[in-house]
Amino acid sequence: MMRPRMPRRMPLAVLLVTLALPVGGAANAFWSASGSGAGSGAAGTTVAVTLSAGTPAATLYPAGAANVLLTASNPNASPVRIGSLALDTSQGAGTGFAVDAGHSGCAVSTLSFTTATNGGAGWTVPGKVGAVDGTLPITLTNALAMGVGAADACQGASFTVYLAAGP
Fold first, then answer.
1. In three state form, how does the secondary structure of the chain look?
2. Mean pLDDT score across all residues of the chain
3. Are 145 and 64 in contact (CB under 8 A)?
4. Higher local confidence (pLDDT), 4 or 101
5. In this structure, are residues 75 and 133 in contact, taking their beta carbons and an 8 Å threshold?
6. d(C-alpha 50, C-alpha 159), whole Å
7. What is the rounded radius of gyration, in angstroms, for the C-alpha atoms of the chain?
8. Phi, psi at residue 101, to the nearest 5°?
9. Cβ of 140: how many Cβ atoms within 10 Å?
10. How far apart are CA 15 and CA 54, in angstroms?
11. Which of 15, 68, 70, 83 has the lowest CB atom count within 10 Å?
12. What mean pLDDT is predicted for residues 22-36?
C-alpha cells in the first residue's frame, strides 16, 4: 500500500507555527500588562530678575534723545523672559529718574522715558550656570528724552533711569 505523500514544506510550516506561538504570547503579555504606582513632583520658585540702574549712552540735551543701557541678571537655573521695561516711579524720589549731586538744579521733570518691548519680542535672560547668574546687556534705543524747556543747570548732568520689568 502506498502512503500518501506529505509535502516537504509541511514540517517547516508546523515548526514555524510552533515557534511563533510562545513569541506572540510573550509580546501580548508585555503590551497588555497593567500596573499602578505613584509619582510626585514639585515646582521650584522663581526669583525675580534684577535690573541695574539704566544710564544714558550719550549726553542729553534739550529736545534730544539717548539710548539707555542696563543689565538684567537672572539668579534662576532656567531662562526668564522680560516682556517690557517701564519707568519705575517708586524710585528716584517718585519720578523714576535721578540726577547727579553736582546738578541738583536740573529738574528731572523735563525727562521722559518710552516703555520698551524690544519690538514686541521682549528679552530672554539666560539662566544661572553654576554659581554665576545669567546676565543680558540691554540697549533701549532712544528711550530717554529731554524736553525743550530743560534748564541750563542740566548741562553736563549724569542721569540714572530706574526701570521695572513687566510681563
1. CCCCCCCCHHHHHHHHHHHHHHHHHHHHHHHHCCCCCCCCCCCCCCCCCEECCEEECCCCCCCCEEEEEEEEEECCCCCEEECEEEECCCCHHHHHEEECHHHCCCCHHHEEECCECCCCCCEEECCCECCECEEEEEEEEEEEEECCCCCHHHCCCCEEECEEEEC
2. 86
3. yes
4. 101
5. yes
6. 19
7. 35
8. -60, -30
9. 22
10. 82
11. 15
12. 60
Question: For residue 17, which amino acid is it?
Answer: V
Per-residue pLDDT at 114: 97
Query: What are the residue boundaries of the structural domains of the chain, listed by start?
Result: 50-166
Q: Amino acid identity, residue 15?
A: L
CB atoms within 10 A of CB 26: 10
**Grid coordinates standing for 41?**
513632583
Which residue, among 58, 56, 63, 54, has the nearest Cα to 146 in the 3D structure?
A: 63
Please state, in angstroms and rounded to a whole number, the distance separating the CA atoms of residues 129 and 60. 37
Residue 58 and residue 141 in contact, taking contact as beta carbons nearer than 8 Å = no
Dig out the grid coordinates for 83 from the structure.
516682556
pLDDT in tens, 141-167: 999 999 999 999 999 999 999 999 998
